[in-house]
Amino acid sequence: MSFVTDSPVHSSSTSSDDFAALLDAELEAASSASSPREEADSDNNHHEYDDTDDDFDSPSKKRSKTEKLEDIEEPQGSTTQVLVEEKIEVSLKGDICKHPGSFGQMCIICGQRLDDESGVTFGYIHKGLRLGNDEIDRLRCTDMKNLLRHKKLYLVLDLDHTLLNSTQLMHLTPEEEYLKGQSDSLQDISKNSLFMLDFMHMMTKLRPFVRTFLKEASEMFEMYIYTMGDRSYALEMAKLLDPRREYFSGRVISREDGTQRHQKGLDVVLGQESAVMILDDTENAWMKHKDNLILMERYHFFASSCRQFGYNCKSLSQLKSDESEPEGALASVLKVLRQIHHIFFDELDPDLSNRDVRQVLKTVRKEVLKGCRIVFSCVFPTKFQADNHLLWKMAEQLGATCSTETDSLVTHVVSTDAGTEKSRWAVKENKFLVHPQWIEAANFLWQKQPEENFPVSQAKNQ
User: Fold this and answer.
1) Which runs of consecutive H residues, i.e. helices, occur in 42-78?
2) Which pLDDT value is given to residue 96?
3) How many CB atoms lie within 10 A of CB 369?
4) pLDDT greater than 80 at residue 341
5) Rounded to an integer, what is the distance from CA 154 to the centroid of its chain?
């Protein structure tokens, strides 16, 4: 028997806080069965337990554990209450325990010490919690059903350069010193966007439209934060973005929670991959899950952010400017999320279990440049295999047809030099001549951009 009847985390009816509280109660019950020596040696989180199975099999211990669990006060009929009752039943029938998970190397159901390191650690839910692969699959399946009943999917959100931009105070340029006098009070976080976190020696700027984005996205998705930053930073940023804990609750995943170094993975997300969407500015962070990813245009508010990525230009803060609220990256991607959500729930196979958000994502993406036939000029290195280039692949993913030769069907010539033969042909034949950034902008904004906004200049050496 598994340790929950419905998912105790990430469902629309039960929070991860309830689950954490329940685990604490279970640990308290388990500690009553430990020896005096163990109690003296164990730390405050109770990570060490007696490895003698007999202690957990004796009737007196079972009664003690059952009595402890019965003392937990829960609302009548709550998922957690059902969970407690199930755990009591399993504790009285220890011979059927399948050890769905462990806490401090002790089975969270029967208390038996486990040395098996299989499964995945979910430290962001509760420190030391490890779930077995079968239980993870069961949880995902159960939670998927709960979420689909509420017409919701999963959305995993990166922090830096996607939802916000942070900098160390010592990295502020003289042109940015004015920001120190404009930072907002931490007493009323929900209405502000620029914060000086003195205790972290840091300043953080929230991306324009982020509060509206989170509010509206939360109606369609169950949301996670997933950052390559450390846990303390992740939690502080979550407080700025979600001061009332309305959107993320305990679903904040940081660098320490990942299972692969320098990579992010959905193995630590309790959602089926077929229902998960990801917003991130770094494609290479999601090597195994690119089909779930919507790549975000990076938010470079501070000068240090521009320098970090090698841009020799003024940052938004130096220009005393910012992204547009109604036309910026988050407003644009929210429209895409609404479209994908609508297609997933209203236009596909009646059987929800057969639907896959990754296929919807591909379908929507292919509509962006549908009908465009593109020829490239002076874009790829000499002797480079054209169809292997990032821009070629990007254009095809957006629905365009790419070619190496000009003909009457060509609609766009993409070039960095207006003086090339193909560029001159485009002008002569009244075809669109655009800079490669036209494709990149369409990729970030998920809609074809006005060609006149991406003119091509003649190379200076000509």
Assistant:
1) 54-57, 59-70
2) 79
3) 25
4) yes
5) 9
